[in-house]
Amino acid sequence: xxxLRKSLQRGVVLSxxxxxxxxxxxxxxxxxxxHASFKVEDVIEQADYLYGSGETEKLYxxxxxxxxxxxxxxxxxxxxSARDLAQLGSTSAEEKKQLTYDSLEYAKKALEKNESNFAxxxxxxxxxxxxGDYEGIKTKIGNAIIIKEHFQxxxxxxxxxxxxxHLIGIWCYSFAEMPWYQRKIAATLFATPPTSTFQx
Length: 200
What we know:
By secondary structure, this protein is mainly α. It contains 8 helices and no strands. The longest helix is centred in the N-terminal third of the chain and has 51 residues, at 2-52. The N and C termini lie far apart (92 Å). It is found in: Cytoplasm, Cytoskeleton. InterPro entries: RMD1-3_a_helical_rpt (IPR049039), TPR-like_helical_dom_sf (IPR011990). It comes from Prunella fulvescens (Brown accentor).
């Protein structure tokens, strides 16, 4: 009986210990999740401040640390900052090219993480257009249709975003005023090349 009582007591103690360990684990896990979400929000807040202050290099250094993030909000901001850094006059031609391709990858990843994020569509379109400068006329014209689709999707998701509306206007204007010889090249490369009108 005494042995049985001791075994039961030990069982209760072990069960209580296991329960406490389990509860502590839940508490720590919960805290870690909350802490992680606060961290993402903090990084975004800091990133938006640096973007507003024109601190291009600092912004890129902050965001590139999170290039493996699963957060679309961080990733499209990283795509934008990589592109902005590529546009600086102090950036070498080699770095500019690398940053241009990197920015497209970050925007693509942002889209994969959240297809409903209007900014991810907008920056994917912008970055894809930039990459076209390195890929030649055939790729550039071929990408133009995809670019327009992403701008249109961004507007569907956020009809009040003036930048995207402006960008699709530039897209239409570019194809409306395309010289005849470029139209001829486009027509030989594609069955249905991208077109637009000044009215559009």
